[in-house]
Amino acid sequence: MRQTLRIITVWFTVSVFFWACDKDNYRVIPYVDVYLTVNLNIVNELMVPGNSVAFGGQGYGGIIIYCVEAGNLYYAYDGACTHEISTTCRVKNEGVLGTCPCCGSQIILMGEAYPSKGPATFPLQQYNTSVAGNMLRIYN
Questions:
Q1: Does 68 map to a domain?
Q2: pTM tops 0.85
Q3: Which of 16, 57, 82, 99 is the most exposed place for a label (fewest CB within 10 A)?
């Protein structure tokens, strides 16, 4: 009986740790359904590695797409600053950098889009991407 109680206690403790590590616990931007399809033949800027393009009307604060490898690898982020958390204060993209005009935070738009300076401490909300032919799909 004592052994069973010990096993249950350990199982419960480990379960709590795994539950607490869920990456959605770090979401500071409100959840919004995102589904955007971009024709890469039309948006030529996304065929140059290091370029980024912003699309309004999607996500919480628009969507910023960053080209890593043309036609193959892209990162997509919500454009809302994680310090301001506002639909009207959007990160302005300039190639590999994004800057919040409201708080001055600078974000590197590669990898996980962590701020490099300014008051923002959380990365931009990242969305999933997939490429099929010349179509880029962004979704959560």
A1: yes
A2: no
A3: 57
How many domains in the chain?
Answer: 1
CA distance 123 to 100: 12
pLDDT digits (tens, 9 = 90+) for 52-78: 999 999 999 999 999 999 999 999 999
With beta carbons less than 8 A apart as the criterion, state whether 63 and 125 touch: no
Would you state the structure tokens that stand for residue 26, as one six-digit string? Answer: 């770090």
Q: Which residues form the domain of 36? A: 31-139
* 115 neighbors 107 (Cβ within 8 angstroms): yes
The whole-angstrom separation of Cα 91 and Cα 114 is: 13
Residue 138 CB burial class (10 angstroms; 0-12, 13-18, ≥19) = buried
Residue 89 backbone phi and psi in degrees, to 5:
-110, 95
Q: How far apart are the first and last CA of the chain?
A: 45
Residue 95 one-letter amino acid:
G
In the chain, where do the E strands start and end? 35-39, 52-55, 63-69, 73-78, 92-94, 97-99, 106-108, 115-117, 126-132, 135-139
